[in-house]
Write a structure and sequence with these properties.
This protein is α/β, with parallel strands linked by helices. The protein has 8 helices and 6 strands; from the N terminus they run βααβααβαβααββα. α5 links the parallel β3 and β4.
């Protein structure tokens, strides 16, 4: 079986899962987080070395204060109290997105968690937090322009921008592009998730809400991916 090296997850449906059960919205997010704690080991045991989880988008700041606060609390728990889960499985943690949008306390906790796991080599988990694909591309282009050109030369640095120079300044620099992107809860769009990186990703949309996703769904998704003929335009 052809195992994807990198899987991206758009974890959609926590609120719909809760609503269908007449539960509070925050309970849906809590159940969704319980799955997040399992997904890394599941992927690692199947030979998937990289996974990226769309945890919080730049647009999610528009949600209610209580919901946003709870999501930030779950993130803090994930990178502090529950970090041992990743350490035990030798998984490196990386957080991508506009980190400056987060509180100083959360930024420090992220830096500490990344430092503690930086030498883990069995797999890498990326959490996309305050992340938007267009925003990432803009920031990468700006950084590429700023680093291009040569002192003393009258050249337009924008003319030296290439696909490689953009890729080198993305939040995911050094991480292979996702082979497979899975979105739960029935929506069939990327919603800004890894727009540059997913140009040739296989896209799988599932009706299940994120808290209901399980190991059998992961196996079925990998089998579906393995049957795909990826020609890359050839």
């Amino acid at each position: 079986m052809d195992i994807p090296k990198h899987i991206g997850f758009i974890m959609d449906g926590n609120r719909r899962w809760a609503k269908a059960r007449n539960l509070p919205t925050l309970e849906g997010h809590r159940q969704g987080y319980e799955l997040v704690k399992k997904i890394g080991p599941w992927c690692l045991s199947r030979g998937v070395k990289f996974l990226t989880l769309f945890a919080f988008s730049t647009e999610n700041w528009k949600r209610g204060q209580d919901e946003v606060g709870y999501l930030m609390e779950l993130l803090m728990i994930a990178i502090t109290r529950d970090l041992d889960i990743l350490i035990k499985d030798d998984i490196r943690l990386k957080v991508i997105g506009r980190r400056a949008d987060l509180s100083d306390k959360l930024q420090k906790a992220i830096s500490d968690a990344e430092e503690k796991t930086k030498n883990n080599s069995s797999g890498t988990m990326q959490l996309a937090v305050s992340y938007g694909g267009r925003d990432e591309i803009i920031r990468a282009a700006q950084a590429a322009v700023a680093s291009s050109g040569h002192p003393g030369e009258r050249r337009d640095p924008a003319l030296e921008i290439t696909e490689d120079s953009i890729s080198q300044h993305l939040d995911t620099a050094g991480i292979p592009d996702p082979d497979l992107v899975i979105r739960t809860s029935g929506e069939q769009r990327l919603s800004g998730f890894l727009l540059w990186q997913s140009a040739y990703s296989e896209l799988l949309f599932l009706e299940k809400h994120w808290p209901d996703f399980n190991e059998f769904d992961l196996d079925a998704a990998i089998a579906w991916y393995s049957d795909r003929d990826r020609r890359y335009g050839k």
